[in-house]
Design goal:
Helix Hairpins; alpha+beta; Beta-Lactamase; single chain; 413 residues
C-alpha cells in the first residue's frame, strides 16, 4: 500500500487543477450563455455573468440598450420620412444602380401602376414597358424630363424626371401634368384660331391701304403721312399672325415631323438672297460653305429656322456691319449652321431668355427693327423637333453668334 503525504507538491497541484477546472467551467458556462444570447439577441436579454464576465456582460448590455435606442430613433425618423414623401404632390421611386426598385411612395404606385408590397426589388423596366421610358432610363437623362402621354391608357400625361444621388443610385420623380397639358392645348388652340381669324381682315385692310397709297391725286398731307405708317403696321401685324400660326403648328404634338433629305448647301444661297433683300444693301453678307453634307430633316422648317436666324442678325446689326453664315462640321462630326454678326452684342443675363416669346432686350430698339419677337422661339421649337441644340454666344460691343448644332445621326454625306 502506498500512502501519500498530505503535504508536498502533489496536493498543491491537485488544488491548482481543481481551481483551474472550476475557472474553466465558469468560462465555458459564460461562453455558452453568450452563444445562446447571440443566437437570438432581439428577443433575449443579455445574460448575467460571474467574475470578470459580469463586467463584460454589463458593458454589452449597455451597448445593446444604446443600439436599440438609436434604432428606435432611426425607425421613427424613417417612418416620418415615409409619411412626408407620401404626402408629396409628386411620385417618388428610389432605384439602385441596376434600376431595381428600392422604395416608392403611393403616388408613384398610382402613376406607374406598380405595387410596393409586390414589386420592391423588381427591375422597373420589367414593370413599365414603354419604349420611350426604357430609352430615357438607359441614357440617364438627368437634365431633361420625359413627357409620357397616355401612360396608363386613360389619357393621363406624366412628367418623369431622373435625379442622381449617392453614387449610382437614382430618384425617379413622377408628376401628373394632364391638367397643365389640357390648359396648354386650349391656349395653343385659342392663339391659332384667333390668328387665323385675324388673317382675313388684315389682308383686306392692307389691300385698301396699298390702294390708297397708289392713288395719284392724294393731296392730303395727313393721308400721305398716315398711309405709309398704316401699311407698315398692318404688315407687321400680318407677320405677327403668321409667326403665331407657325408656333402653334410647331407645338402641335399631332404635327409629326416629316423627315426628308434636305440639301442644305443648295438651300442656303436662297436664304442669303432673302437676307440681302431685307438688308437693302446696308450690311456685308457672306456665306461660308465648309461642309457639303445634307440633313435628314423637314425642308420647310429648316428654311424657316435659317431665315429667322439671318433676319435676326440683320435687324440687330448696325448699317455697315458684317454677317457671316457658315455651314460646317464641328469636332464631333455634327453639322452646324452658325450666323455670326458684328452687332452690339447681348449682355449675359439676357441670353437664357432670348428664346421666350416676345422677350426683348431693348423694347424701344426691338420694335423699331420690325421684328415680331417670335423668331428665336420658332428657331428653338424647330431645333427641338430635330433633336438639335440652339447655342448662343455673345459679347457686348463685339457681336453675337447663333448656332444650330444637329445630331450626327441626321447627317447625310
Amino acid at each position: 500500500m502506498i500512502v501519500w503525504s498530505v503535504s508536498g507538491p502533489l496536493p498543491a497541484a491537485i488544488i491548482f487543477g481543481v481551481l483551474l477546472t472550476i475557472r474553466w467551467f465558469f468560462y465555458v458556462r459564460n461562453l455558452v450563455k453568450l452563444g445562446q444570447w447571440l443566437e437570438d439577441p432581439e428577443s433575449r436579454s443579455v445574460p448575467e455573468g460571474e467574475g470578470p464576465w459580469e463586467d463584460v456582460f454589463a458593458r454589452l448590455n449597455k451597448m445593446v440598450r444604446e443600439h436599440r435606442k438609436e434604432r428606435t430613433k432611426s425607425a421613427a425618423a424613417l417612418h416620418d420620412l415615409e409619411l412626408a414623401t407620401s404626402a408629396l404632390p409628386d411620385g417618388v421611386i428610389s432605384l439602385d444602380k441596376t434600376d431595381h426598385i428600392e422604395w416608392c411612395n403611393p403616388l408613384a404606385e398610382h402613376h406607374l401602376g406598380i405595387d410596393r408590397a409586390r414589386d420592391i426589388g423588381q427591375q422597373l423596366t420589367y414593370l413599365v414597358r414603354n419604349p420611350e421610358f426604357i430609352e430615357y432610363l438607359a441614357e440617364k437623362k438627368y437634365s431633361d424630363p420625359l413627357i409620357l402621354r397616355d401612360a396608363r391608357h386613360d389619357g393621363t400625361v406624366l412628367s418623369l424626371k431622373l435625379v442622381g444621388y449617392s453614387g449610382n443610385k437614382k430618384l425617379l420623380i413622377t408628376r401628373d401634368i394632364t391638367h397643365f397639358e389640357q390648359v396648354e392645348t386650349m391656349r395653343r388652340d385659342f392663339v391659332a384660331n384667333v390668328s387665323h381669324e385675324l388673317r382675313t381682315p388684315l389682308t383686306v385692310v392692307n389691300g385698301f391701304v396699298e390702294t390708297l397709297q397708289d392713288m395719284p391725286n392724294l393731296n392730303n398731307d395727313m393721308a400721305r403721312k398716315a398711309l405709309p405708317m398704316m401699311g407698315e403696321q398692318t404688315m407687321r401685324m400680318t407677320n405677327l399672325v403668321g409667326d403665331l400660326l407657325t408656333l402653334s403648328k410647331l407645338e402641335d404634338r399631332l404635327n409629326v415631323l416629316k423627315d426628308e433629305e434636305v440639301n442644305v448647301p443648295m438651300m442656303l444661297p436662297g436664304c442669303m438672297e432673302v437676307g440681302k433683300v431685307l438688308s437693302g444693301g446696308h450690311h456685308q453678307l457672306k456665306l461660308e460653305m465648309q461642309a457639303d453634307c445634307k440633313l435628314l430633316a423637314s425642308a420647310e422648317e429648316l428654311r424657316s429656322a435659317f431665315g429667322n436666324l439671318i433676319s435676326n442678325a440683320i435687324r440687330y446689326t448696325p448699317e455697315g456691319g458684317d454677317i457671316v453664315v457658315r455651314w460646317a462640321l464641328n469636332a464631333d462630326g455634327q453639322p452646324v449652321l452658325s450666323v455670326q454678326d458684328s452687332g452690339l452684342g447681348i449682355s449675359p443675363q439676357h441670353i437664357p431668355r432670348l428664346t421666350e416669346r416676345f422677350y426683348r432686350v431693348d423694347n424701344s430698339r426691338s420694335r423699331s427693327t420690325g421684328g415680331t419677337g417670335l423668331g428665336l422661339a420658332i428657331v428653338k421649337h424647330i431645333a427641338n423637333r430635330h433633336q438639335a441644340q440652339l447655342q448662343i454666344e455673345s459679347t457686348e460691343g463685339k457681336g453675337s453668334t447663333f448656332s444650330l448644332v444637329f445630331p450626327e445621326q441626321r447627317r447625310i454625306d
